[in-house]
Design brief:
The complex is a heterodimer of chains A (116) and B (115). Chain A is an all-beta fold and 116 residues long. Helix content of chain A is 0%, strand content 51%. Chain A has strands at 4-6, 10-14, 19-21, 23-25, 32-38, 44-50, 56-58, 64-68, 73-78, 87-94, 104-106, 110-115. The termini of chain B are far apart. By secondary structure, chain B is an all-beta fold. Chain B has no helices and eleven strands. Classes of the chains: A mainly beta (116), B mainly beta (115). Chain A binds chain B through residues 30, 32, 34, 36, 41-46, 49, 51, 90, 94-96, 99-104, 106-109, and chain B through 4, 31, 42-43, 45, 48, 50, 55-56, 91, 93, 95, 97-109, 111.
Chain lengths: 116, 115
């Protein structure tokens, strides 16, 4: 069965510093990858997704993630974080071959805490 | 555009009571999902509907949980009788279709506390 591992449960970082949130998934024939962000007392919001094509995908607020098939990774990065980026980030994989629909398997989440 | 709408946002009730959570998916979406989020277990998929039909309910914890989708714009998740271990945040999500690359759009959740 597909699984997702987020290697860090918490990542503290200072404002304007770069950050990388790591995500690895178990191998599969074909997967689709997502990053979601959850702000306090809110639902999950789609940050970015990888379906096919360019292995580097970007979001509108400066985050990017790179799909690496050989390492089965989809790490999330931002060159300079803001206080407002403080949130929990979830990596998820959708494996169409498991269940036959867009079932999402989520990682445990990484809590990003940006300090002034 | 209106997103996924869940009600109530917060629910506090006593053990043994019936709890009903409600969800209105995004208009035009044909797939609906119910999740439960806890510190211990993270995000768990409870049930998936496609075109109002339950397709995958393998995540429903036990018979005390039931879910319905009487039409394309409304779904309920019911717990009867409720127990303290049911305390969690319950999310509803919808997607345009069930294709593998289709993202799911989440509501703001219902925070349920069973005393």
């Amino acid at each position: 069965a597909q699984s997702v591992t987020q290697l860090d449960s918490q990542v503290p970082v200072f404002e304007e510093a770069p950050v990388e949130l790591r995500c690895n998934y178990s191998s599969s024939v074909s997967v689709y990858l997502f990053w979601y962000v959850q702000y306090p007392n809110q639902g999950l919001q789609l940050l970015l997704k990888y379906l096919s094509g360019s292995t580097l995908v970007e979001s509108i607020n400066g985050f990017e993630a790179e799909f690496n098939k050989s390492q089965t990774s989809f790490h999330l990065r931002k060159p300079s974080v803001h206080i407002s980026d403080t949130a929990e980030y979830f990596c998820a994989v959708s494996d169409l071959w498991t269940g036959g629909y867009n079932k999402l398997i989520f990682g445990a989440g990484t809590r990003l805490a940006v300090h002034p | 555009d209106a997103g996924v709408i869940q009600s109530p946002r917060h629910e506090v009730t006593e053990m043994g009571q019936e709890v009903t959570l409600r969800c209105k998916p995004i208009s035009g979406h044909n797939s609906l999902f119910w999740y439960r989020q806890t510190m211990m277990r993270g995000l768990e998929l409870l049930i998936y509907f496609n075109n109002n039909v339950p397709i995958d309910d393998s995540g429903m914890p036990e018979d005390r949980f039931s879910a319905k989708m009487p039409n394309a714009s409304f779904s309920t998740l019911k717990i009867q009788p409720s127990e303290p271990r049911d305390s969690a945040v319950y999310f509803c999500a919808s997607s345009f279709s069930s294709g593998g690359g289709q993202p799911q759009h989440f509501g703001d959740g219902t925070r349920l506390s069973i005393l």
